[in-house]
Amino acid sequence: MLLETSRLVLRRFRPDDAPALSAYRSDPAVARFQGWTAPVSLDSAAALVEEFAAGDPDRPGWFQYAIEEKAEGRLVGDLGVRLHENLMQADLGFTLAGDRQGRGYASEAVRAVLDDLFGSRGLRRVSAECDARNTSSARLLERVGFELEGRRPAFTWLKGEWTDDLLFGLLADRWQRLTGPGTALPA
Fold first, then answer.
1. 80 CB-near residues (< 8 Å, 6+ apart)
2. Which of 128, 102, 100, 130 is nearest to 114 (CA)?
3. Pairing of strands 125-131, 89-96
4. What is the pLDDT of residues 5-27, one digit of tens each?
5. Domain extents in the chain
6. Distances (CA, A) of 71 to 10, 24, 36, 110
7. pLDDT score of 101 more than 90
8. Does domain 2-179 have CATH number 3.40.630.30?
9. What is the pLDDT of residue 33?
């Protein structure tokens, strides 16, 4: 499985990705709004890489793309897609190494996956959610075309506190309008 952009390759995980995965998932700032707790040991990262590599993007369930920066040939993040049983909708989530944030890489990766899901695979809807305090992720989702559909107050118990969840959705027809001829999404 391979998706490519001007600066990134989205590919299947490989065993040699474990050290980079361990490093960026061990960063407390990267882990802050995520379901795991930093640090992530090299052994835990190796087990995750093995699990991710075994995934099937065409079957219901989660598939995790490795986000590789072309220029340096190194893993800089991951992007998960959970395909629903009906094969017509999916959820997505993303994580990017702290030193690669703010450069448009996450937006670029999300757009590539959305192009594949809506274009090549013909999905009808993609959803995402994030911690309401994670304003960077919320802005990214809106920038690539997702619409805020709701807020669930004090919905998730995360790292010793209740957090609000923001719910986002994007329909195929909206994606086509946003990305069709003569249109350009902001970077």
1. 62, 63, 64, 65, 92, 93, 94
2. 128
3. parallel
4. 999 999 999 999 999 999 999 99
5. 2-179
6. 14, 18, 29, 19
7. yes
8. yes
9. 94
pLDDT at 125: 98
34-42 long-range CB contacts below 8 Å, 24 or more apart? Answer: 34/95, 35/158, 37/159, 42/18
pLDDT tens sequence across 28-82:
999 999 999 999 999 999 999 999 999 999 999 999 999 999 999 999 999 999 9
DSSP one-letter string for 7-61? SEEEE---GGGHHHHHHHHT-HHHHTTSSS-S---HHHHHHHHHHHHT--TTSSE
Give the side-chain half-sphere CA count within 13 A for 96. Answer: 20
